[in-house]
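Run log, item B.
One chain of 61 residues. Sequence copied directly from the ordering sheet:
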Amino acid sequence: MSKKKTILTVMWVIIALIAVASVISLIVFPRWKGFFLAGSGAFLILNLLLSLFFISKNVKE
């Protein structure tokens, strides 16, 4: 497995874990705390997707 593919796979797994944790926080926590944690997770996912885009463009095979 190449270095680029390994990095991208790990990033996708981290994004999936954060997405699951955000959805669970909406269900488990009280109203505003759940919204805050889910919103923070969404912001983190957005940043990770942006970094994923730049990593895929700039890392050599």
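Observations after the first pass:
- Residues 39 and 47 are 12 Å apart (CA to CA).
- The chain is about 90% helix and 0% strand.
Flagged for discussion on Thursday.
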